[in-house]
């Protein structure tokens, strides 16, 4: 379908062609033209040529890159460290020395047999055979579904080992000890089976997975504001037992997110974390919990977070940051992005496509959305210059068809209205949404219209501010399931 955009500041008319039924890959990015737009803090846009900006389809962008896991891209000292790590790990697994044991299992069984008295020879043979099988199982060590025995040649082994090496600055002995401790912790805590445990629904509002960022990382949202409720805080953290259960549940969510990853060279092998601090309790209440969980993540999930985005940061965050800083590696600190409440959408959209951002954060994603899916319509973007008026025209040529649209202006502070204009000049224009001024904290707009004659829906935006605005929108008129 075609959306026609009129820039009333001048006489320019531009057509934007958007395939409503085209397959839209998730995630997407902005396709930059020769006259590149530079986004600065606060969502303002600089136009190097200061020309009227034309609408464009929002597709996948490369906002940041992870370090390569291809051997050919590694530096010489990194390849050397990886080879040493693999040799050390191979010897430990084959020698059954990866896990510390007080005594070999076979000797334990033999001593028990002597104490109990003589047993039938065939029973001893069975016990010994079982013992040998257990030893063999120890050699079949894996982590996050990836075999760790280097000689097996699994494609993801190097990727996993590089995570531990990078977490320890490519110091082989330190990385090896870290891996051993992680495997021991997972074994003792039964982490490999944690995804099947049922923790109920009480914790579901605290942390959840939703969508993917521009690079394909699964996005995890952590909502700290729920702990403003003293009742929920005590219910979650009131006792050591409850705190331990919370950590276990949080590890379960981490493991579920890891199941979405691809531990092959070139694959997406880490998550994006969005931490919402709106209405969260002060540092005195969450410091202990935060310290303990940071330790669990850093010790057992190295390089599993591509970015940590903190949104709606309150004034006390900087005090908490000073408290947590000693517990974070320099590498971990470099992954933090902090934004104020007024910059949430502008910040998130740099890393996450707007159709993957939940509506409460200014995005288009709604729970159980039956009006839009990733196959329905691409997101288009235009720049609304200061002091200008722009219209977006959405065709509605098929009579009785239901038309849906989403629209958001980063920073808002514009006047906005919607109307349906029939193709027949003798028919009357229908006001869909009366003109109104929309403030800076307004969320995205979704509206719908069902036409009784051919025409077009016109969305009009007037920017009376002295700053350029980014306008993002999409529409869909192929929803045959809607009824009114």
Write up this protein.
- This protein is an alpha+beta fold and 484 residues long.
- It contains eleven helices and 20 strands.
- The protein has helices spanning 76-94, 105-116, 121-139, 157-167, 172-189, 230-237, 240-258, 283-300, 317-324, 330-333, 344-351; strands at 2-7, 13-17, 38-39, 45-46, 56-58, 142-143, 146-147, 207-212, 218-223, 271-276, 305-311, 336-338, 379-384, 389-396, 402-409, 414-422, 430-438, 445-450, 455-462, 469-476.
- This is Patellin-4.
Structural class: alpha+beta
In spatial order, strands of the major sheet run 2-1-14-19-16-17
How many individual β-strands?
20
The major β-sheet equals:
6 strands, antiparallel
Could you estimate the helical fraction of the residues in percent? 25-40%
| SS element count, helices | 11
Global mean pLDDT: 80
- Tell me the Rg in angstroms: 28 Å
Could you give the distance between the termini?
Answer: 23 Å
Shape annotation = elongated
Share in β-strands: 15-25%
Unreliable spans are 1-53, 59-64, 102-107, 131-137, 480-484
